[in-house]
Design brief:
With 102 residues, the protein is mainly α. The chain has a single domain, classed as Orthogonal Bundle (Helix Hairpins). It has 2 helices and 2 strands; from the N terminus they run ββαα.
Amino acid sequence: MHAHAPAGYRLDPDRLRSLIASLQDMVARLSRTAMELDAAVSASPPGHDEVSLNMYRQLVTMTEQARASIGDRQVRLLAAIAALQAQLRAYEDAERAGAIPV
């Protein structure tokens, strides 16, 4: 069922719920990726020679950069999810109040 949302645009609540679920899945996948990165860095360097230690330092640096990127993406996704959930709640409230023509 498509109906006009309070702001005057059309909203499909089922599609919006599906989008929210999809974004939540993305956040969960990012969390799993972050945990995998943490596990990779927690391992000991492959050796104690200069090449092995340099490779390990590069791994740590790249992991820190990846974690920062993941954290930033999660923050943006969570903000989008919160905004969409608020929009859905407002729509459902308006629908219950009879303010949405069907």
